[in-house]
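Internal ticket #5521
Category: modeling
Description: The requester needs a full-assembly model to guide mutagenesis choices. All entity lines are attached below as received. Residue total reported by intake: 445.
Assigned to: D.W.
Attached entities:
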Amino acid sequence: MIDKSAATLAEALSQIKDGATILIGGFGTAGQPAELIDGLIELGLKDLTIVSNNAGNGDYGLAKLLKTGAVKKIICSFPRQADSYVFDELYRAGKIELEIVPQGNLACRMQAAGMGLGPIYTPTGFGTLLAEGKPTLQYDGKDYVLENPIKADFALIKAHKGDRWGNLVYRKSARNFGPIMAMAADVTIAQVSEVVELGELDPEVVVTPGIFVQHVVQVQPAPVPVSA
Amino acid sequence: MSYQKLSRDQIAQRVAQDIPEGSYVNLGIGLPTKIASYLPADKDVFLHSENGLLAFGPPPAKGEEDPELINAGKEYVTMLKGGCFFHHGDSFAMMRGGHLDICVLGAFQIAANGDLANWHTGVPDAIPSVGGAMDLAVGAKKVFVTTDHVTKKGEPKIVAELTYPATGQKCVDRIYTDLCIIDVTPEGLKVTEKVEGLSFEELQSLTGATLIDATQG
């Protein structure tokens, strides 16, 4: 019997080692797997590369991880927010490397990895600072810039419900990057509010098929603070 | 003659008049967000937010806020009946794939050829943040920009060439300022409306690129 929900949070996370590249779901605080991140912090790792849309809010989740100094580099689209003081301080002190990626390119670079594609041509960013030094192509009268896939060792995501085969459904705008991150990592660990029996998730509404998910961990999520 | 600048709400109201029923629309953060409150309630306009919402509605009543139901500006919203959720890959397919009819963005600068700068001031210690701006600029069928006509220091924001880092090239279709509306066309920047009492010559003097007077009468 396959039971992807068997491992505890600590067991599931214990595979992550120093220097790992980790995709972390969320748009602001919505969809951030805060309990998985708390578990990651306890491992006391170093030299992590994190891929996430933002660079942390307040002292919650990802911001808390950054504060520990475990993160060497962050790849994101929108680090600067009213409540991104943890990141801002690290960045201005030269303690973290930043790669800015337009949000849609961030999504499609992970999708490319998940779909087994190589580098992809995207119109987004052409002719801007973010395309400097990258190969370009004109196709059908439009300009494109070549971007590499983003493949990761791990994805930590938050879903609403999951079953022991790893099928997932999400909640409202907490879905955001979850489904595509699940495709782009070797090992995807999903925290869910509830593990349900096989068959309880209607096959018509499953958002992430279990093939993309290696571990499902049930947690009682603490209330999500509001992003600024 | 004296003239009165449009307020931010008046600009938002004016843009709302140009959004036809049935449009799929992304409203950027800031002034563009205000446009939503001027869309007539009896018309179906589908608002898109890059974090995976289509057909979202006004803010919730006090006490009904859900931290997992937010727009791209990280403000609480509600869903309209018929609205739906999707992941970022689909969301940016809508944006980049030319499925959105209109996006409305803010601007630091717009160049005569429609180049847009709105993500990075280029100041050395600024922390650059781009979000979905570059995707919207290249992907929507029509890109509208709302902006003050000049900066707080009185410098033109509509310029011959950008001096700020670009968000997208030749992407802006129409500019709504607190003084006028300008269509960006292959022939140049055509002023189609201006506030009462403002002469074309005065408007030109506040603009860093050549304007064409296309106002009616």
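Resolution: model delivered.
Comment from assignee: Residues 29 and 43 of chain B are 23 Å apart (CA to CA).
Ticket closed.
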